[in-house]
Amino acid sequence: MRLADIFRDHSQQRFSIEIFPPQTEKGEESLLNALTRLTEFGPGFVSCTYGAGGSTQQKTLEWCEKIQNVLQQTATAHFTCVGSSREELVDWLNQAAGRGVQNIMALRGDPPRGETEFKAAEGGLRYANELVELIREHSPNAGIGVAGYPEKHLEAPSMADDLDNLKRKVDAGADVIVTQMFYNNEHFFRFQEACQARQISIPVVPGIMPITNFQRIQRITAMCGSEIPEGLASRLEAVQDDEAAQFEIGVEFAIQQCRELLEAGVPGIHFYVLNKSQACEQILEELNFQTAT
Ligand SMILES: Cc1cc2nc3c(=O)[nH]c(=O)nc-3n(C[C@H](O)[C@H](O)[C@H](O)COP(=O)(O)OP(=O)(O)OC[C@H]3O[C@@H](n4cnc5c(N)ncnc54)[C@H](O)[C@@H]3O)c2cc1C
After folding, report:
1. Residue 148, by phi and psi: left (phi above 0), alpha (psi -120 to 50) or beta?
2. Which of 70, 91, 179, 279 has its CA 20 to 30 A from that of 190?
3. Residues contacting 65, CB < 8 A, separation 6+
């Protein structure tokens, strides 16, 4: 199913899961187990990331095939401009189509480790809106997701600039916006309003990463500029030597956060599950997502 169709029925709020291709055989086995459990809840789609620097090009497609053929779920392949010329990007798109992948999350990607500024590859693309255009040109029927930033992309000079650039991606043909993770719903609600004010009318799906380990989440949020509210941070700090307690606080917080978002009528929730199922399972159970079809 294509992304636009997944979100077409406004009466149903869908959830989706994001995984990354594991590096080891053990990791692959453990991910397959986690996915088997999570897909019982009926996700709208399962997406697989495209490694930094384009390092998992083939693995991303292999996992999308597994998601489709082994788990019988709709797959979305993440795809970035990093390190590829236009011809190489088109070649990958042809491979994705050949493997039956109908949905692409079109991203610019981050600068390679050690570099602070993104540079287009020779003969490549500079921004995600150009990638959306390229996909529309070569795979006109593909479902296309793009990234949105409720707390602004770190490189953008202002929120207004960032939203103008988001609009470029939408005008180029994106079907859905999936947001960067955030822990303060006020950022999301403001972002949603700002999108509406710019006549962005495609679904805006909040991205949620349940906290299971405070140290790890601090590293991740520092890299992407997401704020951890002070109240939550201090509760987690108080149990910094107790991972089980951090897990419990993180899951309870995510349940409340998702509940508020769902009550406000979001089209769905995208879970960054970091290849584990336990936290997300508990959240989905609490939110009664098992009734989704
Ligand atoms: C849901 C989601 C999934 C992700 N998956 C992956 C993944 O699988 N692999 C990976 O490597 N990374 C992934 N990322 C991270 C992403 O690659 C980075 O956040 C990256 O820095 C920006 O990507 P983008 O697609 O938002 O870029 P863009 O939309 O191109 O924006 C990048 C910056 O340039 C500015 N900009 C955009 N267009 C223009 C323009 N035309 N003129 C001037 N300025 C412009 C924007 O305001 C922004 O500051 C993901 C992020 C999200 C939110």
Report:
1. beta
2. 279
3. 75, 99, 100, 101
Dihedral-angle region of residue 14 (phi above 0 means left; psi in -120 to 50 means alpha; beta otherwise): beta
Q: Which residue's alpha carbon is nearest to atom 45 within ligand 1?
A: 165
82 burial level (CB within 10 Å; 0-12, 13-18, 19+)? buried
CATH of the domain at 96: 3.20.20.220
User: Which residues constitute the domain of residue 136?
Assistant: 3-291
**Nearest atom, ligand 1, residue 153 CA:** 49
40 catalytic? Reply is no
Tokens found for residue 281: 């399972």
Residues pairing with 79 in the sheet? 106
The answer to whether residues 260 and 252 touch, using CB atoms and an 8 Å cutoff, is: no
* pLDDT-flagged residues of the chain (< 50): 291-293
Q: Return the closest-CA partner of residue 232 out of 249, 217, 247.
A: 249
- The predicted structure's pLDDT at residue 115: 84
Does ligand 1 have an atom closer than 6 angstroms to the CB of 19? no
In short, whether 220's Cβ falls inside 6 Å of ligand 1 is no
Query: Nearest residue CA, atom 5 of ligand 1?
Result: 49
Q: How many domains does the chain have?
A: 1
Give yes or no for residue 2 CB within 6 A of ligand 1: no
Asked whether 48 and 107 are in contact (CB, 8 A), the reply is no
**Rounded CA gap, 107 and 129, in Å?**
8
pLDDT at 52: 78
